[in-house]
Amino acid sequence: MCKARVYIEPAQINDNISLGDKDIIHKLKDVLRLKKGERVLIFDGAGKEYSYTIANLDKKKALFNKCKVLMDEKPPNKKVILGFPVARESKINFILQKGTELGVYEFIPFLCQRSLSAKPSQKKIQRWSKIVIEATRQSQRLWVPRVNSILDFAEIAVLKYKTKLAASIAGKSIPEKISEGYNEILFVVGPEGDFSPEEYSDLKKNGFNFISLSSNILRVETAAIFGSGLLKYFLDGR
């Protein structure tokens, strides 16, 4: 059984790959203790996974030779797009990691009245991408979820999706809001302290339906992950 799975961008996929990423080399060489001739799985995050053999592995460089294509998967036709407010870094990291494991197709962070007001630095946004890639690798997914640019609340409210849901303790149960033909769902959760009355009004005006996840008040990250998992479960079961 192959012990290693590595992400390589689609444009870099070739019959022979040379890799200088120190973290990947350390994992292959020092953690997994792989040797020349052993097999590595390489996925491109866009639906394809390949079998490669290690041609050379030292402290500075890894060389791989392609064997064959193992999987070629089209984009999923049932998608959960998760919108969440900008929050503390630990909360966002958790949402991205667990949301990826649960099958979220796209993440849309946004600013609203009760979210953090400062946009994250470019360095933090780059870290978000790394978290999503690593969670994709670990969970054996073939498609890396997209992390969208940060939107203002007014922008996320008017996004065009056939099905738009928002978490609300006063909402309906999920089965009442999921029907046949619902293949792509935009699901948003509010910040600590919830959406403001004005924001709830804007969501309703722009076609959002409200769903209740629990009779208890949930934290942002709990609502994001629990709701995404439930929606994916209902979609995949149809």
Name some characteristics of this structure.
Alpha/beta knot; 2 domains; Ribosomal Protein L25, Chain P; 7-stranded parallel beta sheet; 238 residues; 32% helix; single chain; 5-stranded mixed beta sheet
Describe the overall structure.
It contains seven helices and twelve strands. Strands 6, 7, 8, 9, 10, 11 and 12 form a seven-stranded parallel β-sheet that branches. It folds into two domains: 68 residues, Beta Barrel (Ribosomal Protein L25, Chain P), CATH 2.40.240; 158 residues, Alpha/beta knot, CATH 3.40.1280. The longest helix has 17 residues. α2 packs parallel to α3 and α2 runs parallel beside α7. β10, α5 and β11 form a beta-alpha-beta unit. The relative contact order is 0.15. With 238 residues, it is α/β, with parallel strands linked by helices.
Number of domains: 2
Task: Determine the N-to-C terminus distance.
Answer: 33 Å
Query: Over the alpha carbons, how many angstroms does the gyration radius reach?
Result: 20 Å
CATH superfamily of the largest domain: SPOUT methyltransferase, trefoil knot domain
Helix run count? 7
Main sheet overview: 7 strands, parallel
CATH-assigned fold name of the largest domain: Alpha/beta knot
Average pLDDT reading: 90
Structural class: alpha/beta
CATH class descriptor name of the largest domain? Alpha Beta
What's the architecture of the largest domain in CATH terms? 3-Layer(aba) Sandwich
Contiguous low-pLDDT stretches (5 residues minimum) are: none
Order of helices and strands: EEHEEEEHEHEEHEHEHEH
General shape: elongated
Tally of DSSP β-strands: 12
Beta-strand content estimate: 25-35%
